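Re: [ENG-882] Designed sequences occasionally contain unexpected residues at chain ends

Forwarding the minimal case from QA. Structure tokens:
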């Protein structure tokens, strides 16, 4: 196990009706006027925004709105939010939505107090200050409600870049009411499940050995997600299953599964090119990428994949290669049983431009990337080919 610092300062308010305390929470972190960021229509249609606004009114919080944030959010909306925030002199940001809304809110929160171009933070400049961020989560998926990360696509060149901060971009509070997920379409709930599993696996596949506590936390979370996934994705809304999935989604990505070890993150790099170029849902893209990456990696490094197979999917084979292969088949079968894609074709990409994806991912991630398995251009090419 390596030395580590773990700082997860977010206050989580979990359960029914918790969105009614949004105003109170904003007041508690010192906000008087906030920029409220939201997506297209779901939060307004469900009545959530009305309830949040009532709560803000009750707490005496003023607000201005930035709405219509697209999935896979882009830099133009961040610039718009920064401009609005400056004009209206706001002192905090409230995100009501999923990862796309929260990430836009985070980039705005860092951009408003900064004199330069916020994109500097996405090209290496550390975030040294940001306005406080509060979240009302509507979809268990990206884990942005507890993470220090933000992912924004620069429209010019479609560069989808992820940044990670230790402290400043972690929300001050996150309101998690599983009931708010009732309006989610099936494809979004299952994509969210794939995304949160990927967040755990990106950390699980690590070159650091002797990390039993973090390994077991990760395996336990993966098993809990697998156990409740079908109930959570069923047409009849199941509050308890959604509650377990929602909490798992937060724990998957608030850093606890990475404590004490080097993380991988190659699969997210590979997927971000797919969602940037083809506009697919991030979690659905990961359901295609992860089994392909595991297949490629297990050809030369089968041990940890075999451990994953045995502990998460109860595979019994004693031979590491055979166990790894069985575990990967079980993961694919699990994704398919939820209706997730596991090939480019199933993702709706009939003729992927693999050389272009390879070129782009190495421009964004470097000549070699991945903390567990170092992917070169020829490796990346082979992994993308395994998704056909
Ligand atoms: O815009 P609306 O109308 O709200 O519709 C949204 C959107 O179309 C809909 N939705 C959300 N909550 C709903 C709902 N529909 C009905 N009922 C509800 N309760 O769902 C669609 C997808 O929303 P989005 O915010 O894009 O989903 P998600 O949370 O999966 O976020 C994906 C984004 O997060 C990034 C991804 O790359 C992608 O851009 N990620 C962010 C991370 C982070 N900051 O830590 C980590 C992740 O690995 C990920 O990369
Ligand atoms: Zn993700």
């Amino acid at each position: 196990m390596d030395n580590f610092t773990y700082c997860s300062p977010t206050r989580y308010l979990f359960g029914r009706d918790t969105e009614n305390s949004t105003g109170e929470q904003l007041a508690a972190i010192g906000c008087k006027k906030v920029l409220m960021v939201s997506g297209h229509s779901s939060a307004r249609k469900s009545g959530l925004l009305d309830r949040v606004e009532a709560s803000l009114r009750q707490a005496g919080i003023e607000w201005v709105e930035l709405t219509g944030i697209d999935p896979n959010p882009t830099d133009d909306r961040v610039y718009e939010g920064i401009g609005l925030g400056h004009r209206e002199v706001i002192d905090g940001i409230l995100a009501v939505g999923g990862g796309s809304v929260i990430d836009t809110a985070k980039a705005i929160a860092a951009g408003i107090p900064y004199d330069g171009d916020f994109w500097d933070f996405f090209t290496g400049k550390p975030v040294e200050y940001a306005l406080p961020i509060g979240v009302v989560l509507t979809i268990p998926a990206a884990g942005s409600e507890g993470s220090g990360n933000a992912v924004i696509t620069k429209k010019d060149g479609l560069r989808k870049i992820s940044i990670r901060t230790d402290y400043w971009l972690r929300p001050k509070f996150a309101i998690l009411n599983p009931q708010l997920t009732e309006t989610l379409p099936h494809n979004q709930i299952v994509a969210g499940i794939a995304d949160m599993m990927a967040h755990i696996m990106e950390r699980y596949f690590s070159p650091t050995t002797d990390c039993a506590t973090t390994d077991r936390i990760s395996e336990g979370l993966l098993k809990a997600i697998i156990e409740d996934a079908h109930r959570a994705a069923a047409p009849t809304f199941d509050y308890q299953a959604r509650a377990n999935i929602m909490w798992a989604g937060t724990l998957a990505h608030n850093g606890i599964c990475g404590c004490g070890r080097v993380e991988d993150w190659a699969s997210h790099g590979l997927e971000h090119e797919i969602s940037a170029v083809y506009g697919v849902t991030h979690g659905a893209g990961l359901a295609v990428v992860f089994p392909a990456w595991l297949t490629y990696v297990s050809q030369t490094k089968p041990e940890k994949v075999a451990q994953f197979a045995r502990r998460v999917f109860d595979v019994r084979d004693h031979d590491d290669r055979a166990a790894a292969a069985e575990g990967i088949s079980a993961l694919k079968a699990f994704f398919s049983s939820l209706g997730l894609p596991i090939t480019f074709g199933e993702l709706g990409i009939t003729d992927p431009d693999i050389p272009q994806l390879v070129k782009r991912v190495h421009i964004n991630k470097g000549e070699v990337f991945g903390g567990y398995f170092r992917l070169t251009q020829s490796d990346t090419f082979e992994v993308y080919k395994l998704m056909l």
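QA comment: On inspection the terminal residues look reasonable. The chain has 14 helices and eight strands. Proposing we downgrade this to a documentation issue.
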